[in-house]
Every structure is written in structure tokens, then in C-alpha cells.
Amino acid sequence: MTDLAVQLDLPAAAPDDPHGIRIDNPADGTVVGRIAAAREADVAAAVASAAAARALWARTPATDRAAGLRAAAAAVRDRVDDLARVNQLETGKPLDEARAGVLAGAATLEQYAELGPVHRGKTLLGEVHATDLMVPQPRGVVAVLTPWNDPVAVACGLLGAALVTGNTVVHKPSERCPHTGLLLGELLVPHFPEGVLNCLAGDGSVGRWITSSPDIDVIAHVGSSETGRAIARAAAETGAKVLLENGGNDPLLVDAGVDPEWAAEQAATGAFANSGQICVAVERIYVHRALAEPFLAALTARADRLGLLPLVDARHRDKVHEHVTDAVAAGARLRAGGVLPGEPGTLYPATVLSGCEPSMRLMREETFGPVAPVREVADFEQALAEAGDDRYGLAATVLTRSMDNAQRAWRHLDVGTVKVNAVFGGAPGGAAQPRRASGQGYGYGPELLDELTATKVVHLEPAPG
Length: 465
What we know:
This protein is α/β, with parallel strands linked by helices. It has 2 domains: 4-246 and 437-457, Aldehyde Dehydrogenase, Chain A, domain 1 (3-Layer(aba) Sandwich), CATH 3.40.605; 251-430, Aldehyde Dehydrogenase, Chain A, domain 2 (3-Layer(aba) Sandwich). The chain has 16 helices and 20 strands. A 7-stranded mixed beta sheet has the order 13-15-16-11-10-17-18, sandwiched between helices. The protein has a 6-stranded mixed beta sheet with strand order 7-6-5-8-9-19, sandwiched between helices. Strands 3-4-20 form a 3-stranded antiparallel beta sheet. α15 (403-412) links the parallel β17 and β18 (417-420). The radius of gyration is 23 Å and the shape is globular. The mean pLDDT is 96.
């Protein structure tokens, strides 16, 4: 196969370039392509370009900024199949899911094109002879660091909100999907003035150079908690505002009285969609003992039917398998999967474990793979207590026929999003505000526009005479 970077006319790296990023196909282990990584001088130039463009872009009418987003969304829609194919080659994401992610990204750009021009401030009641205003203004230069598991949809959300509110941007996609990220940049950049949107490929060192720059005003990061903590430390030195969505350890609570087959279908969707590589994937399951066995039987059957699923790379597969083997060594029982295949690529079987204990890493840490650890509980109170005993705070799902238990759950669980009877339910445009180790600040929705602007209070009154 010809190097994908060469095919797409992206900055390719030579095979012997020590700074190049090599991507292997998770499905069969073949080399997809090699991307040239940005150097420190490239980062400095990109940040300087964004800083130079910020004043003019901030003064650009909101309707004109929105027009740029609409044109960018149209360009993404025109290349939906190319973006989806590249995403599949780099990360193993199923083609239909990759395509849906690209279309979601285009729709998000269009959404912010509508919301941006009507993002408004407030007037305050004061003296009758004076005027008091609260005016939202762009914050300046925004660093956007995006993940590999849904690279187009996530990037378009953060980029769209930042650009339509008058900020300039330096974007670094994950080093696990640089072809996808740079292709997206090639499609978006031409629809904005020079310097407004800058895209760089690179690993963690490039991210550190960006986030440590004193000219960065906001850092928006979706990715691991470890990286999020490093970003927060860097921002404490520079004074940049930080928006973080850093994964979770989302519980699924299965109450007595629900249909175990339906509950197993919900659990399988939550644990195995995109090979479990979703920020709000189901990471741990608490099932009432009254329906534990039929639930486990149905969930195991679904896992067996799915079989092998692609994980993004060998390093990630090793981490997932380590969580599983640690749990088995500590007494968990494998019901499905859990065995490394002897095939090329980085495939891993849909895995179900029963007999899981709260102390297991599988229950305490984010696994981010196609693994469904199940813990049998005596009652809903135990499920609620154990589900809430966690350092993350992203999301949770509750399956119940009891309105009382549903109310108790959403009030008790200290997470940003609680879903009742739909593992991936939610209205379009809804914002999410992660808590604790899962991050801080709103992601998506109209509220993201507030995060990416600063409020200026203005008091106007006439001079004497």
C-alpha cells in the first residue's frame, strides 16, 4: 500500500526519520503511513500566527465567522467518505461508525454557525441615566488537543465553538490518528483568514510545547486523565484557562424488575461499541442478584457473537489485557473473551467477567476496551453506593422501572451526565460538565460558547455638563 500521507498530500516522514509518526493498521498490522511531526520551531510559528490573527478575527462580524463555519461544514460533508476511510485505517473504527462521526462533526460546525451570532450578553438595571452591559468577548488563542477515538466529531465541536466566538486556534490531533487530523485541517483552514486556524501533528512533546506557551489563553483537551493533569499544571504557570474532558469509569446499574435480555443489550452497546473506546462507555456493571444469571447469559451470548474487535494499537491492547488478567488472577471469572488472539493487527475479543470486586483495577480504573466487568449486588442501595465510590465523574446509566430509584440515582451520583434507561441517550446539542478526575468545564452545547468567551462589564454614563 502506498504511504497514506503521500496519497493525501500531507507532510510525510521518511522511514528513517526519528521524529516521524508511524501508524499501523489495527486490523492487520500493515503500515498505513508516516507523518512528519512538528518541531518546536513549528509550534512557535503556529502560536505566533494565531496570536497575530486574533485581533482582526475578534473584530470580524459574528455572521461572517459563522459563514466560514458553514463553508467548512460543507467541505467536510463533501469528503465524508475519505475522512471515514482514513479514520478506519488509522484506528480500526468501523467504517459506518467513522462515517457517522464525520457527519456529526459537520452538523456540529453547522450548529455553532447558528448559535454563534445569537450568543449574547446582558444589560443590568442601574441608574436611570447610565447604561450597564455585560459583553462576551473572545479569550484569544485557544489550544485544542483532541483524541483518536472520535477525532472528527470531537475536533469539530471544540474548533467550531472557538472559531465562531472570535478566537484563533492551534489544533493538535492525537498522534494515533494524525492523518485524519491533518486531513480535517486541510479541509477547514481555507475557509478562514490566514492564521486563524493552525494544525500541527505530533506526540506529547508537541502538546507540551503548545500548552506551555505564554501566548495560549485557553487549553481545551479531550483525552487521558494523566495528560489532563499535566496540562492543568502547565496552565497554572501560564494562567491559561483549562477545559478538560479526561475520560471516566462510568457505571451501569441494573435494577431488579427490568427485562434481563434488554438490560444485556444495553450493557453490550455501552461496553462494546467502538470496541469500548468511547469516553462514556460502560466500564463497570452492577446487577441485582435477582436477575444476575439471565443477564450474564444474555450478555455473554452477545459478546460471543461479536468476537474480535479492533483496538487502536498494541500499547493500548496490552493495557486492556493487563486489566483483564489482573482481575482473573484476583478471582474474577471469564465468561467470554479475555484471551489474546494469534492474529495480525491489534484485535481483542469482546470480554465479559463475573465475580468482580470493587478493589480490582478493572473496577477502579478506566479500561477503555471491549470489556464488561459485572458485579452482583444485593439491592439497589448497594449498587448506588458502590457506583458512587469512584474518583471519576463523567457519566452513569441506570436501568430501572422504579421512578423513585431513578430519582435517587441522578441526585446521588456525582457525575456530569446521568442516563436513565438508555445507555447512549441524550438530546442533540446537550452540554456535559465532567467532574473530579474526569475534568472541568462544559463540553459542547451552547454553554461551550460561554466557556470560550470572557465577560467584560461596561458602565456608561454621561460626563457632567
